[in-house]
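User: Can you predict the 3D structure of Olfactory receptor? Sequence below.
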Amino acid sequence: MERANGSTSSGFLLLGFSDRPQLETPLFVVILMGYVLSCLGNGTIILLSLWDPRLHTPMYCFLSNLSFMDLCLTTCTVPQTLANLKGRDKTITYGGCVTQLLIALGLGGVECVLLSVMAYDRYAAVCRPLHYLIIMHPQLCLHLVLTAWLTGFGSSVLQTALTMTLPLCGRNQVDHFFCEVPVMLKLACADTSIIEAEVFAVSVFFLVVPLSLILVSYGHITKAVLKIKSARGRRKAFGTCGSHLMVVVIFFGTLISMYLQPPSSYSQDVNKSIALFYTLVTPLLNPLIYTLRNKEVKGALRRLVRGTTGSRGS
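Assistant: Sure. Here are the predicted structure tokens for Olfactory receptor:
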């Protein structure tokens, strides 16, 4: 029991990429640049959604929540990773590990539910355009957003409690760059089969169920778009939905490869690469995909820039 409590008092050693020291400096530069760009991109979407009245719609309400969630996710993991890459001290306290695990799991769950909500929003916009504002009224949007956040973090509290109460027997070296459930389960010296089954069940609920709802929504959207006689109308509809579908493919593809397999079968090198993609690249791609493919966001950005430069000139 003394050895089991040792990890609690001394914290954990995040090994990260220490087995490849030649990669630490290049990774530090790449991750730092990605983090700054991600903060700028997601911060810009949040600012535009709040500032421009034309973006006060359900779609941009959900998109600003997605950007806020991405900001929280990168801030939860990336600064610790940067500190470990350049500093000698690669430890994280027990409380820090619990907090990191709780936030990362919660935000992952929130995004899964939120992306399915956004798919329903696109379904209502394309398939029920005359009733769109009645269906997606502000109160329903608020309830859907709250449901996403409460569901994600409710599940996270349960998974974090089950994972972090396992006896670790003094093994406090985490072969990762942040605290994650599959890696923490590997440190346990007790039978983890029940918790692994629980993690798998939760993963199915948050990955397979929302993805199925998204695919059903886009099946209806595709049929509705193909009935549009105007080629310009079809391009506009596919362009509006294409950005969301691209985010869905990237996000769910990454998480399914991480969580829908037993922890014992993980390759740590592959897992680290996938986790880095999920925590850094995906939050960076989201604002790029939505701004580059969305005329409304680009128009709002131009109006903001013109307004800022005009006020300075006067």
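Strands lie at 12-14, 91-92, 173-174. DSSP finds eleven helices and three strands in the chain.
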